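Fold it.
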Amino acid sequence: MKLGDRIVGETDPPYVIAEIGVNHEGSLKNAKLLIESAKRGGADAAKFQTYKAGLIASKFSPSYWDTTKEPTTSQYELFTKYDSFGRAEYVELAKHCAACGIEFVSTPFDLGAVEMLDPLVRFFKIASADITNPPLLKKVAMTGKPVILSTGASNVQEIDAALQILRSAGAREICLMHCILNYPTRNENAHLGMLEDLRARYPEVLLGYSDHTLPTESMTSLVAAHLLGAVVLEKHFTLDKTLPGNDHYHAMDEKDLARFQSNIKKVHELVGPTRSKAPIETEEISRLNARRSIVLTRDVKADQKITEQDLVAKRPGTGISPMDWDQVIGQKFCRDLPEDHILTWDDITKP
């Protein structure tokens, strides 16, 4: 799957999306600082959210986040605080991303946002809440661009339906993101094991993980998700985790991101480039010298019939393998041989 300038596959290092969302809080200057910080931290993409309060939520839409962290109890009221950016601002942000060398992405939450963002993005991200929004799914798919679809709070039937809609409307490259739609997500609710079910059910798509757990020193949630098959990783991003508001306290900052990139480089090196079990090149000397051969327990004579008592399995593995033990028993030696000789097929009379 091509995401910006990267081809991303199952065995590649993760593609990391810094979800800035609306943590710029309506400030173009802050948005640019967040882009620069995400780039320094090592993110592949800086992602925003494009919506208008009146198109995303009714005036009677209740909250679904931790109100001890974000006291606003109306979705409409919260979204109204951060929907000030228009096309001009997103064009400016896309240019700034290009100048910084990081991919610009923004999640559209209405059809007009899809049209506005289409010339600015090279792939689309669809939020979990819109997995049951066919008009938006179709509109995104009709752009022909790669699609990342979050699956938070969805069941298998809803995922199947969304994939069918996307594919029927023209989407060819799709990434499914495991996600838990809790803000924040408690560790015991992260259920990263669901990635295994997604892999089994949808082997033809790329897997990802959108994380809402609280960041830790080791960034364990992202590392674990990658080990379970998530190649695209997304996490909220902020300049300051102590700021009030819904998406700051569970976000990562530049230091978290840089630490994760350092950790995942080591982890990815440990995992290796293949998932197929086979000896690797550096093990060849071990296969030769640490394995065993059939070795003589005593001196033997030519034409002597080979018995179990004549043989033992010893290192190195340069002679006849003990796997051929039963084929050797009952044959005859073709020459006199000393004790501890490593037996080869040239030492045995051909039948």
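The first strand starts at residue 2 and ends at 3.
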